[in-house]
Amino acid sequence: MQNWFGYDVFMNERAGKHLLRTLYSVLSLHLLTACANYGAIQNQAIDSRASVTERSLEDAIHSGRSNEVTIALSFSGGGTRAAALAYGVLLALRDSPVKLGKDSSHLFDEIDAISSVSGGSFTAAFFGLHGEDAFDDFEETFLRRDVEAVLKRRLLYPSLTLTSKSRTEMAIEYYDEILFHQATFADLHSDNGPLVIINATDLGNGVRFSFLQEYFGLLCSDLSSFSVSRAVTASSAFPIVFNPVVLRNYGGCDSHGQRFLQQQHEQLSDSPMMQSVTSGLGSFAHKDKKPYVHLVDGGISDNLGLLAMYEMVESAGGIKPFLDLYQAKPAPRFVVISVNASTSPFAKFDLSNKSPSVGSTISAMSNIQLHRTNAATLELLKNSAERWSQELSTPETTVQPYFVEIDFNGIAQTERRDWLNQVPTGFTLSGDQVDGLIEAGKELLLNNPEFQRFLTDLKSDETGYN
Fold it and tell me: Which of 262, 340, 264, 249 is nearest to 295 (CA)?
């Protein structure tokens, strides 16, 4: 989750004062441009005579990748820091050769899904569009570019008050210039790459909203023609600083998703969390009360990107009904890799009995809340992975789960770990910071005990690890 052009809420005292001054400038600018702050509607309606085809998940499940293993990644928020750490993990997967069945490949080729929020969505979307070719230029195109400076110059330039474009629209245009080049979700799903799940938050009801056709079907809308840049911007649009990305909630289609949600809402009465999720998504059926959906930073509802996986499975009633829904068979091994770029910077105010500043206090409060939420999410997913494997296992076949946690706590050297925890959440990092994050991502994955257990188990199979 990020705020002013990526500066996160874990700020030092000087950054806190800067944030307050900047927010004042943004609010003043907002008042000057209030007449222009209507969200541009870019999602298209589905033909009212058609029944919504919801195939995003089904297409991914029935891809041409190996049936021996299922690999799902989640990329957290955290600006360029998160994007670079995720990039390092992808490099490590590219450099991990495997032999599955009769085919030799790399673990990068076996990724089935990537769920992302905020800063992590830039990496997820770019690799979803370009596959292994993305390794050729993602560093120079995004990680080593001074994105933040360009955004500030464009968004704070006085001529902004004379244009009808919102700050969000200008950011979308810039991301298209440097990264996405007007690509749509039809382009993102055009080959046999992994399913990329870009997540935002519905500001109206607080529910996580994923850019999947299953979700767009609830709006009677077509995802294939929707802009990838617009989705990534929604995923990283911190409220106040950026206007929400707005979707039109169309009516008149036959949405299987709404009927399914209503049915599951009635059956999930023993799960308050899933009741809340299905109730929130079910609100899209009330077209008169909710003709528009306002999407903001996905980190607000889930800063790890993990809940998208959990909620999709549990909203179907569990892992077995989920797979039955898509007529899929479980792989004997499934791996979840959580790439968590959140930091734990040193609280300097603990060195004195002086009362912390407003900025330091906000920072500490937000830090505590985020880390507690992340810890609860990780525990939920880890326990769910174990439960899912037990439900899917039979006397003849055991389904083995592997839950791999990547975060800076895995760095053994204290000085290096402290250095990484001081890397800011911005859209501009130094070359040394980008190098350090990429190397950390590679090292954290390859040295992770759970990931090593997975490689060892693969090697013991007939299909084996090379």
Answer: 249
